Amino acid sequence: MSFLWTTLMVKDMDQSIDFYTKVVGLPLNRRFENGTMELAFLGNGETEVELICDVKCTPEFTHYASMGFKTESASKKIAELKEMGIDVFDGPYAPNPFMEYFFILDPNGFKIQFVEDKRG
After folding, report:
1. What secondary structure letter does DSSP report for 8?
2. Cis, peptide link before residue 107, omega less than 30° from 0
3. pLDDT in the model for residue 49
4. Amino acid 102: pLDDT
5. Three-class SS of residue 22?
6. pLDDT at 55 (0 to 100)
7. What is the DSSP letter of 89?
8. Global confidence as pTM
9. Which residues pair with 38 in a beta bridge?
10. What's the start-to-end Cα distance of the chain, in Å?
11. CB burial class (10 A; 0-12, 13-18, 19+) of residue 76?
């Protein structure tokens, strides 16, 4: 069995694609319309992020959900985000000597976690 994608309902497809390509660093693989919906798939591996913008649906997120992405350096990523005008929502945290992480919010209010693995 393979894990194919995680789906997020978004308010504005262009704004969300811009965020996930420029801030998170995921390439846009495909984008198309299907009736009242527009879909986009982003990622650089087997698993993708699927964005759906549907005029009939308003996205709602829970504070318990998030997506995590690896970064080479948490402090450098925070500095890069600050230059882009993006604030850290929560953190940074270093719960042990091997990890540091923090959260930001995507344009729809969904939590995005950046994690530095300090084991090398």
Report:
1. E
2. no
3. 95
4. 97
5. helix
6. 78
7. S
8. 0.86
9. 33, 53
10. 29
11. exposed
